Amino acid sequence: MVPVRLCNLPPFPAVAVNILSEPEESKSDIKRLATIVEGDPALAADILFLANSSLFGFPARIDSVRHAVAVLGADRVNILAVTVAMRQLARGTGPLIRPVWEHSIACAIVAARLAPLFGCAEDQSYTAGLLHDVGRLGFLRSYPVEIGLVMRGEFENLDEAMATEQLAVKADHGQAGAWLVEYWALPPSLALTCEHHHAPLQEREPATLQVVKIACRVADALGYSVFHLRSSPTYEDVVRSVHKCLGRNVLPPEAEMRKFVEDRSKLFQH
Fold it and tell me: pLDDT category, 3, cuts 50, 70, 90?
């Protein structure tokens, strides 16, 4: 059963829905993508910000959206479009949105890093990682008092936190996220990652789901956890559990991954 107040959430920003709904063969069409971006001032501003950031270091200033889209490429623009859409939905949810936002960004960055090792597209993995906790965002907008008590609490482990969340709003954030993905008519594969990202990692499951499960655990282990847990797996615990399930190690050393996430997450804090 879907918590009733989730039905009152605003629609997912149209520009992001348009980009996510594009057929794969059309997503690399730079001219078409530039036209979509130009229809959203917030997205256009962020595209220009990113194109002129130190991350890329282009020698001359980029002043037009079409030039920015051309130099950044379709994948990066798709990634930024979804990030801007999520940030728009997060506005007005109060201070508790910060840990949710930081966790979601960290998970998305890690997912994009791991994607090639699983044969996944980086932009699709980033999007799945960014939206995996969209149910929490929905709860913060719809049930701020109830979910606020949960997020300010301290729990022995993740299972206890999830059980408390379930009691507070009659659903967990994974179930809420899956429902919101369907409600907003986003790609169905995103509902799968929302609903099952806390389930144990399995060898025979969709690769993108595997990537998001690992990325979510890595984000927590690096300190980007939403819940306050007294007992939380370390980065090495995550490495061992992934190796045990998949029979291979896909994670770099902790210091390398931490720097990778910190450097890239700064781009989304302006």
Answer: low
